[in-house]
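Re: weekly structure request thread

Next one in the queue (132 aa):
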Amino acid sequence: MLRSFFQIFILFSLVGISSQMARSSTNQFEEHVLVVMRTMGHELLLSAGDSTSTVLPISRDLERYKMQFTTDFSFDPQVLSQIVDSVMDKTKTAANYLIEIKNCDSDLVVYSYELNKMNPEGEAPCKGRPFP
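Done, posted below.
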């Protein structure tokens, strides 16, 4: 049975998306986001020492994209934010976004942060704290 302990949700703000992406069609943007999300998932699994598990298909609900995995793993909030921020910066997908990590069993948010390029002093909460 494929199960994931965590689901990662990303909400993109369309403000600040690169001009090239803004000019492209909605379908092209959607395809771009799916590849970006899979890249994030791959990098997150690698950071957890997992090079064999699968990132399940990315799903979308309105402006939210959901990523799930085939195996349970733990993550470091600082590493998660570094991976997401790095991939977003390299791919120029969005300048503003919200990340939520939810427990699959309870659907409760166990970690979240928001990046807004208009407020560069903003920082991911709980950086440096051990995550259970």
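The mean pLDDT is 75. The chain has three helices and five strands.
Next request, please.
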